[in-house]
Description:
Elements: E1 10-12, E2 36-44, E3 57-64, H1 67-78, E4 86-90, H2 97-108, E5 122-125, E6 133-138, H3 146-150, E7 161-166, E8 179-186, E9 196-203, H4 210-214
Helix pairs in contact: 1-2
Amino acid sequence: MEAPHNSPAAETAPKPAGTDPASAPKPAAPDSAAAPASTASAEHGGSAGGAGTVPEAVTVALTVTSPEQMQELGRRLARVLAPGDLVMLTGELGAGKTTLTRGLGEGLGVRGAVTSPTFVIARVHPSLSGGPALVHVDAYRLGGGLDEMEDLDLDVSLPESVVVVEWGDGKVEELSDDRLRVLIDRATGDTDDERREVTLVGIGARWAGLREALG
Length: 215
């Protein structure tokens, strides 16, 4: 179902496909997190012995210590994003995936509050400034992966948008050969520790300059 065009953000749910207890939505949980403190990076891959070849992956590791810092990291990432980019967020419930995406939305200047798309699968946030739209997807219940993504009838061109997918590992990689993976690790157990270890992995030629772009 698509929200009216005058709504803050268009929301899309998958086409009905019968009732399946296994597809029940996961419990909602507050998405708390953090933003950058220190940075280290390393490049992996690349063709053996190939001078000037583009590395297969570029990795940047950061430590963030509060939800405000996590949101600021999203704003920083937004400055390097372009139409057609695919960003895949990985982290347990409450790690900070939606907080990071909220910062991305602010940095991209899109319409509508960025919240978890758990129950609608995907939300489209149009740009307020002529830039790319933000397509925010929760792939937790997308058992069919890419095929099911195509059935969402998103009222937007994915190649002209920035697509951010939570829980997308193993499901949406075929959307793009070049993609940015964001892995968010938090302290385990019953703890209020807001420290997060964030690892950015840029895959493909598009992200060869990730470290330099983040400054």
